[in-house]
Amino acid sequence: MAVLTHPDLLFPSETRPLSVARDLYAGVKNLPIVSPHGHTDPRWYALNEAFADPAQLLVVPDHYIFRMLFSQGVRLEDLGVPTLDGSPVETDGRTIWRRFAEHYHLFRGTPTRLWFDHVLAHLFGIEEPLTAATADRHYDMIATLLQWENFRPRALFERFNIEVIATTEGALDDLKWHQMIRDSGWDGRVVTAYRPDAVVDPDFEGFSANLDQLGEITGCDTGTWAGYLDAHRQRRAFFKSFGATASDHGHPTAETANLSDAAAQELFNRIRRGSDDERERKLFRAQMLTEMAKMSRDDGLVLQIHPGSWRNHSPSVFQRFGRDKGFDIPTRTDYVTALKPLLDCVGLERDLTVIVFTLDETSYARELAPLAGVYPALKLGPAWWFHDSPEGMRRFREMTTETAGFYNTVGFNDDTRAFPSIPARHDVARRVDCAFLARLVAEHRLREDEAHELAQYLAYTLAKKAYRL
To answer: How far apart, in Å, are the Cα atoms of 48 and each of 144, 146, 156, 181?
Structure first.
């Protein structure tokens, strides 16, 4: 066992639950990975080219890493994060890596530290901690390995024991990389997911032009409400033809609406003309969540709602570097009132699956678990984003299980752009769930045979079932 990771990582210290946790983990640690929601780049699997260098693979694209370093005064330019206007940033991988290594101590106690040490130890066979003194040795070893055939994307996909992975593409994407994967004959299962934010959110940059492009792609008249909805149906069918089993919606809130068709058409007309009324723009987003749920009822796509993030909180960083640069901040989120219009419309549908995530942990026991514990269509997504951590996962189980149980949750998904960290993230989730189950066994609240069955469900079966994979 590599010294950077302990075999009893995240397990209880007491003898009885520790023994049970070890047994449970032994039964699930080698299960295939089902990654039903994520943001890895499909071109990696399509082209199967060697990754450029350790920094470009492990540091530059990972907002968990550069947001922490930025908070301590390290410029994004010095970490190689590209600017929108093409102004110069650091491009030397070794220099970027050294800066990261010099500041690696900042990640003590964070899930990023757990994931990264796992990658170093289990993927690259590195046993000494990353520091300024070891940075060059680590860099040289990783850079050498990345040139090997068995460190290319498809080989890593197979080495990671990934059964299926979902990428996420916008509604206007031509899915050419997925087509290339299909044409290549490779049997790795990479599917897409439908992310229509750019054509359902009036505050999304270029919204009007995006609707024009949606019309051009589909041949539908996106100047009318009926044509606009038909365009979505057509794109959803196109995404399904490339394996999509889910749509994904990153709305600022969980607000939904259920307007009459006449009222929805009138609202769309105002939005299409460029309404600057914030109430109308919010109402349109809310209506579109319900419209997407109704389409999911018809076409079978699982509906994922990822609300409650104040995206691009720093306007200056957004203007210079664009989206997804670490400045997305959790907000308080209401679900009981916000989801009621959608649930009034489709919440009792037994063949529909709506998966709700949250960045507001105060809603777990008060709102989300009771809702998922009674509405057949509603399921709870796992601890997400800022709470994708050992403590966050424990809190999720502790605050939702009593009311929603285990079977109204959907297992784990890694939701990551950081491809090499996928096994680490699933390993952490499996360990935390095994530790939680072991505690229930030790407290005589669960039989050990039930815990073994649940461990399999939480690690593998629930995700396949919920996402129809």
So the answer is: 17, 12, 10, 10
Where on the phi/psi map is residue 468: left (φ > 0), alpha (ψ -120 to 50), or beta? left
**Do residues 247 and 195 touch, judged by C-beta distance below 8 A?**
yes
**379-396 pLDDT tens trace:** 999 999 999 999 999 999
Token pair belonging to 129 = 């901690």
Kindly report, residue by residue over 330-357, the tens digit of the pLDDT. Answer: 999 999 999 999 999 999 999 999 999 9
Confidence category of residue 11, pLDDT binned at 50, 70, 90: confident
pLDDT at position 13, please? 80
Amino acid at 265: Q
Amino acid code (one letter) for 205: E
